Amino acid sequence: MSKRFPSAVLVASLVCVGGCGVSDRSPPAEQIPASESRKQEEPAPVRTQARPYRDYPYSFSDDRESVLRLLERRRAKGPSDDELLEEISRAAFGYFWHEAHPRTGFIYDALSNRSSSSAATGFGLASLCVADFRGWITKEEARERVQKTLRAILEDPGWEHIEGLFYHWVDAGTGRWTGAEGMCLHDHVALICGVMVCREYFKGTEIEELADRILRMANWSFLTQAGKGTISERTGFLTNVASPDNHDWGGVVEYDGMKLDYLLPIGAAQWPVDPSYWDRWANTYQWGDYKGRYHRITRAALWIHQWDNCYLDLFCMRDAYADYFQNSVENTLANRQWCMDNGMYSAEAWGLTPTTGPNPDGDGTVYGNYGAPPPPAGSWQQGHVQDGTIAFTAAAGSLVFTPEESLLVLRYMWDELRDRMWGRYGFTTSFNLQKNWFSADYIGIDLGPVILAIENYRSGFVWKYFMRSPEVRRALNLAGFVGVVDNFDPMEHSHPYAAWSVTGTGSQLRRVEGYAFEGTHSLAIRPGAAPRQTRIQAQPLRRDFSWHAWMGLYVAGADARIPFEVWIVDGADRAIQLDALPVQPALRAGEWELFVWKLPAPDTVNLEDIRKVVFAPLTSPARGELFVDHIFLGDDAPPGM
After folding, report:
1. Which helix (H) or strand (E) holds 455?
2. DSSP β-bridge partners for residue 483
3. Which three-class secondary structure state does DSSP give residue 159?
4. Which residues contact 323 (CB under 8 A, 6 or more apart)?
5. For a pLDDT cut of 70, what percent of the chain falls above it?
6. Are 451 and 123 spatial neighbours (Cβ–Cβ below 8 Å)?
7. What is the 3-state secondary structure (H, E, C) of 300-363?
8. Fewer Cβ within 10 Å of end Cβ, the chain: N or C?
9. Cβ-based neighbours of 412, under 8 Å, separated by 6 or more
10. Which residues pair with 522 in a beta bridge?
11. Three-state DSSP string of 40-78
12. Residue 14's closest CA among 443, 410, 389, 445?
């Protein structure tokens, strides 16, 4: 199955060599903001945010100092970061406003492909919410377009489907399947994600009711049917592609597609699939390194690491298998490093993921399977095409993972390439400096992640609304996800989960390797002469505790009592002591014992902005050192309760 076109598509008319010609199919660039109905004298709402959503460093490349120097030079002669991102995302939104069928609102896949794509339509729905939030269109314009689209999906006939699972490619005006590929789970889920954002953003309106009807259509259990939903050797995994005439339907294995391919079926309100499917899938991950570094779940194409992270905010969260946000950081930096190790790319021009590129025969445009570094042989979307073609969506869609490195690419494109690849919807899909080639095409699934990644970087807007969905909370709980305050294990290209300090005469903290509840490291606390005057403080990267109900940690070396009191402090310096919860003694794991504290009501402190976790005083000092590991945040009932 393909991420994009049902077959190789050559579009000679969309080739740009040395310059970019733009067709007249859609309104010119100055009309892209699409605020036709707003009175001219009415000022647009001011929602620009000078500081990013997470305004503190959390990832870094090996050459960060060089990146910062290059970035400052380009910043000195151009717009501010926020102004630049506003310009790029607002222009890209014009695609979803204008390249939609007038009757249905279904989004055309690309200028070069006038079928409608389920994934592009999902990105379009989420982008409409962003556009209203930013004031690019009015609330009424956004509501009307979303309603039109959701009604068209539901009407009879609406968007054609199998068991409530929508086909990938349909006629934009009728919703009838084009006959290509069938239902692709990745793309169906991408559509559903857009529907869910609209449901949460327009809560209390008809849109919420329409969105709920669409969500209730899906018979997720259909994806599990051995011999029907899967081929025999993949029984136990969810079906990836399904159509009436396709007997080799395959399954979602390895790190294919999106985590939401499994999470949404697991968290569904009706016809859910068993959580064991998540564990079965996670055990197929292929882990690897690039030149002995960048340890990660390997997938060469960056879209795989971007799409569901446009919706899921897994920052400082993990399950039993991985920190998936950090995994996307490592994959983005590995992709970048591979580019820099090969002479066709640079620190200012990198990013490989499937997109349009120059036909190797020199005639027209081809959709290329770009990606790097190449993963083990036999993997799907290996990224076997590396000819110098760089995808705009690669660095831009990774902005939340590699802010400085991605901004440098965007500023380079703005300064050096704007006259050759900026058209009615902003930057086109791709460019190849080696061949002096610049795409003239726009693709919905390339522009969607750009808009959502930029907005999450600026405000966290899409994350906030999507994460309110009860299906998401249920799925993450069932799959075993927890928030991480700290696990003390080192990360290669991310700062530690928390910064630690201690006060108290003679008191010391040290990170210990080889002694841990899980992983490789723990925190050793050596109290001073007056243990009750010892104050230990953590400043966590994860500041949003609002999603959780309790905090737990494991301790070794304490006596039977709770070893310390725990306080949390918000950004306004309001502090509250947490109440300890009882847990069963049987939950001791060797020398390690679990302790749990209940998080307070949200009116006592701002649980969305917790800046400090304080452990003081030491009420149960042990002989010698006290060891702490795996400090985590949970939402379901704590273990042993």
Report:
1. helix 444-458
2. 317, 633
3. coil
4. 314, 316, 317, 484, 491
5. 85
6. yes
7. CCCHHHHCHHHCCCCCCEECCCCCHHHHHHHHHHHHHHHHHHCCCCECCECCCCCEEEECCCCC
8. C
9. 74, 348, 349
10. 512
11. CCCCCCCCCCCCCCCCCCCECCCCHHHHHHHHHHHHHCC
12. 443
Q: Return the ∠ at Cα 129 (arms to 102 and 423), rounded to 5°.
A: 60
pLDDT for residue 34 = 39
Token pair for residue 247?
Answer: 């007997």
Radius of gyration of the chain (CA): 25
Residue 218 and residue 164 in contact, taking contact as beta carbons nearer than 8 Å: yes
- Tokens 């968007």 identify what position? 159
- Has residue 575 got a pLDDT over 70? yes
Compute the distance between CA of residue 300 and CA of residue 376 in angstroms, rounded to an integer: 10
From the centroid of its chain, how far is CA 344? Answer: 28
Q: Which two tokens stand for residue 566?
A: 């725990």
In terms of Cα–Cα distance, which of 211, 199, 181, 189 is closest to 118?
189
Rounded Cα gap, residues 66 and 337, in angstroms: 14
Considering only CA atoms, which of 226, 194, 641, 240 is closest in space to residue 452? 194
Dist. CA 116–CA 557, nearest whole Å: 61
CA torsion sign, 175 to 225 to 3 to 32?
Answer: positive
What is the structure's pLDDT at 504? 85
Helix (H, G, I), strand (E, B) or coil at 200: helix
Write the DSSP assignment of 552-620 as a string of letters: EEEEES--SS--EEEEEEETT--EEEPEEE---GGG-BTTBEEEEEE---TTTS-TT-EEEEEEEEESS
Q: Which residue has the higher pLDDT, 42 or 261?
A: 261
pLDDT at residue 380 tops 90: no
DSSP SS3 for 283: coil
138, 193, 202, 447 from 120: Cα distances, Å: 22, 11, 20, 9
Tokens of 632: 């985590």
Residue 164 pLDDT > 50: yes
State mean pLDDT over 344-359: 94
Cβ–Cβ under 8 Å, residues 23 and 111: yes
The pTM (predicted TM-score) of the whole model is 0.91
Give the pLDDT band (50/70/90) at residue 38: very low
Question: What are 70-123's pLDDT values in tens digits?
Answer: 999 999 999 999 999 999 999 999 999 999 999 999 999 999 999 999 999 999
Helices (H), ranges, 80-234? 81-98, 118-134, 139-154, 185-201, 206-217
User: Can you list the pairs that 374-381 forms with residues at least 24 positions away whose Cβ atoms lie under 8 Å?
Assistant: 374/300, 375/286, 375/288, 375/298, 375/299, 375/300, 376/286, 376/288, 376/298, 379/254, 379/286, 379/298, 379/299, 379/300, 380/254, 380/256, 381/3, 381/299, 381/300, 381/301, 381/304, 381/354
Tokens standing for residue 308: 């569901």
Choose the weakest-confidence range: 71-85, 233-247, 370-384, 499-513. Answer: 370-384
* Res 378 pLDDT > 60: no
- Match 């882990």 to its residue by tokens: 287
CA distance 135 to 129: 10
The H or E element containing residue 102 is: none
